[in-house]
Design a protein that fits this description.
The chain has 155 residues and is α/β, with parallel strands linked by helices. The protein is 41% helix and 14% strand. It has helices at 19-22, 25-30, 70-85, 100-112, 124-137, 143-153; strands at residues 8-9, 14-17, 33-38, 55-58, 89-93. The chain has a five-stranded mixed β-sheet. A hairpin with a 4-residue loop joins strand 1 and strand 2 (14-17). It is globular, with a radius of gyration of 14 Å.
Length: 155
C-alpha cells in the first residue's frame, strides 16, 4: 500500500510526509501546517513558496546511508522549536516521507525528550527508547514511515 498522501502526526505540531502531502492544501489545512522542512529541495519543489502564509526551511539532503545529515540537525530542531513557540505546525517532508524526514523527526524527539545539545546519537538504546516513546505516545505513523524509522535505528 502506498502512503503518498499519509500525513503522520509525530506530536501535536510535528508531522512527517512525502512530497504529495506537501502539495495538498487540504491535508495542510486539516493539520494546520504552515511550516515546512523540505529535506529534498534538489528533487522536490516548494509548491507554496510564493504564498506568504507558508514558511520553508530548504535542505538539499541526499538519500543514502553514507550521507551525513548531522550537519542539518541543529538547524531543523531550531526551526521546529520556533514554529512550536509560534503555535505553528511543521511538516517534515522529502520525496516519499520514509527516510530523510523520519531521521529528522527522530532527532527532534530525542532532543525534546531531554538531550540538551545537538550531538550525534550516543547509543542505539537511547535512539530506540526515544522512537518507542514516540510510537507509544503519539498517533500511529504510516507503516512505511515506521518501518523506515526502525531501519534507521538499526544502522
Amino acid at each position: 500500500a502506498s502512503c503518498a498522501l499519509d500525513c503522520s502526526m509525530i506530536t501535536s505540531f510535528l508531522f512527517v510526509g512525502g512530497c504529495e502531502v506537501a502539495k495538498s492544501k487540504d491535508i495542510l489545512a486539516k493539520n494546520n501546517i504552515t511550516r515546512f522542512v523540505n529535506c529534498s529541495l534538489g528533487t522536490v519543489d516548494n509548491k507554496f513558496e510564493s504564498d506568504d502564509s507558508f514558511t520553508y526551511l530548504n535542505l538539499n539532503v541526499l538519500n543514502g546511508q553514507q550521507d551525513d545529515i548531522s550537519w542539518f540537525v541543529c538547524e531543523v530542531i531550531n526551526f521546529i522549536e520556533v514554529a512550536r513557540r509560534d503555535k505553528c505546525s511543521v511538516l517534515l517532508h522529502c520525496e516519499r516521507g520514509v527516510s530523510r524526514s523520519c531521521s529528522f523527526a527522530i532527532s527532534y524527539i530525542m532532543w525534546a525528550a531531554g538531550n540538551s545539545s545537538c550531538t550525534p546519537l550516543r547509543s542505539l538504546h537511547t535512539a530506540t527508547c526515544a522512537f518507542e516513546f514516540a510510537c507509544c505516545t503519539m498517533l500511529p505513523l504510516c507503516y512505511h514511515c515506521a518501518t523506515s524509522c526502525c531501519s534507521l535505528l538499526s544502522i
